[in-house]
Amino acid sequence: MTIALTDVTKIYQMGDTTVHALAGVTLSINEGEFVAIIGPSGSGKSTLMNILGCLDWPTSGSYRLAGQEVASMNDDQLALARNKRIGFVFQNFNLLPRMSSLQNVALPLVYAGVSKQERQKRAAAALASVGLGERMEHRPNELSGGQRQRVAIARALVGDPAIIIADEPTGNLDTKSSIEIMDIFCHLNGQGRMVILVTHEPDIADYARRVIHVRDGLILNDEVKQGVTGCSGKVS
Amino acid sequence: MFWESVLIAFEGLRANKLRSALTMLGIIIGVGAVVSLVSLGMGVQQKVQKSIASLGSNLIVVMPGASKAAGVAHSAAGSNITLTNQDAKAIAKEISGVAHVVPSVSGTFQVIAGGQNWNTSVQGTTTEILYIRDYKVGSGTFFTNSDDESRARVAVIGQTVATNLFSGSDPIGQTIRIGKAPFRVIGVLESKGQSSMGQDQDDIILVPITTAQDRLIGQTYVNNINIQAESEQVLDKVQEDITSLLRTRHHLAAKADDDFTVRNLTAIMETMKESTSALTLFLGGVAAISLLVGGIGIMNIMLVSVTERTREIGIRKALGATFRNILLQFLIEAIVVSVTGGLIGILLGVGGSYAISKVASMETVVSSAAIIGAFGVSVFIGLFFGIYPARKAALLDPIDALRYE
User: Fold this and answer.
1) pLDDT (0 to 100) of residue B77
2) Cβ contacts (< 8 Å) between A108 and chain B: which residues?
3) Residue spans of beta strands (DSSP E) within B236-384
4) Which of B21, B102, B291, B390 has the fewest CB atoms within 10 Å, counting from its CB?
């Protein structure tokens, strides 16, 4: 599954001022790539992530997700794409506080129409794969930041999506937890999933083989590192 | 998916127990009020219907005096002396389809027996009153037509009179003084209890009409004539025939107004029935307003809930929830509140109407129609007042919702 953006713009109207969050981005990412989108705040990287994640629509230009034009999809089709093809990981975890880890992880499967038994099984497997097999009945407030983010990652991959989009996934974590989380992303990428990482930290971007610099709504630089880089260089 | 949404809704309600309970309270009170007040109104209605039945069917009443448009007998001075015993006899003789004709006079007298005295209504009537007014002789006998012809001083007394004058001892054969005239008690009526107007129907003395006219009241005319028609089909015909007969007998010119009023009792009772249904409707209406207020309470809380859970909605949408999923979740939440409240309200309303009948000794009829109706309305209220907040939630833009603090 590949994604392709052609001359995508996004314009917001904020009161009297018009904000060009994206000023014409052309970009394609292939199956199984590990890409970091890096840029300072206000650079448009979050807008780019939202569009890639089918949470937002371009003002103009074309976005093809696995060959399908996103602009031509209706709300339900977008919801389906978010449910089946994309897994989100957010900076502030965005777990539902009243639910256990297991229920949180199983949530996308509820909307996918998976039976309860099957949901439990798959959610438990996803939690185990991020090393939280012991914490299934805990609520988010009973977990550490690193653990919460791992629950969020388990939730992102429980539907077995081809694309994982992570928005500053280590932004609220200490160094040790950050390394653990990045290792998980490397592992997911190793399974052949496309991982798109949005960050402003060069350290984190270093995990990716391909780094895209964004500034003022434009792609400044799109470099693919050669040699022993990305996860292979980081994971000991 | 539907049951999932129901479960999610219950989770949401459980998370805010106090708030959910208070929201429900509006519906509980509304439904409870509808059920109990309607059952109260139905109780009154039933009582009226019973008293209609006790009055006997197919009754026509002729009263002196012209009627006004509203159907109320209007007795102008001097106009109440137009009906006589002979009118009654003529009706019985000349009009077909008449089963019984009972003329009567009445007055209030002081009645003395031994050392006791009692003020009561004395009615002069004929034997046939037993057929049309549902009186039954409990002990002793009723007076006969020959008593009537001979103006015998015999009386049949009601239970209340018997209790107050004789307090336990057998009144049969005893002598009572009605006004100044002595009467022999020959019978006691069976108790009939209160009428629909709250009148004690046992506080009465019946005497032969001629006796009453000559020896008590001293009048030659009658206060009214009760006529029972043979069937409902002939009722209107009989009513018309009576009118034309009495007009002829009273020598009224073609353009002159009637000097009497013929009323069909069934029609009067119909009107009473209508007014009691109106009462039921009114009570139900007042209660329905509180149900409406309860519904608005649901909407209010649902709107707060949607705002409060904007972020949750954003997360759910990012994970693939569709418009329908979110709409259903909040709609079901509103319906769960209103239906649960409705069920509790029904229990409360049924309990309340029992309490009313026990404490206030008023008749109540718990109607299944009111229960089903109130339940249906509470479901509808959940839907109606839930749809706007639910739609608002489902229409939230996922990015805005996720950014919401």
Assistant:
1) 45
2) 319-320
3) 260-264
4) B21
Q: Does B4 sit within 8 Å of A79, measured CB to CB?
A: no
Residue B175 pLDDT > 50: yes
Q: Which residues of A touch B399 (CB under 8 A)?
A: 50, 55-56
Phi-psi map region of A100: left, alpha, beta (phi>0 left; psi -120 to 50 alpha) = beta
Q: Convert the pLDDT of each residue in B97-133 to its tens digit.
A: 888 899 999 889 999 988 888 899 999 998 888 888 7
Domain ranges of chain B: 2-51+271-403, 83-249
Q: Answer whether B402 touches A (CB < 8 Å).
A: yes
Chain A hits for B316, CB-CB cut-off 8 Å, are 107, 111
DSSP H helix total and E strand total for chain B: 13, 12
Q: Among B15, B311, B325, select the one facing A111 at the smallest CB separation.
A: B325
DSSP 8-class letter at B258: P
B46 vs A10 pLDDT, higher one = A10
Q: How far is A41 from chain B (nearest CA, A)?
A: 15
A32-54+76-234: CATH superfamily: P-loop containing nucleotide triphosphate hydrolases (3.40.50.300)
Among B305, B319, B326, B396, which would you mutate to test the A interface (most chain A Cβ atoms within 10 Å of its Cβ)?
B319
ipTM for the assembly: 0.92
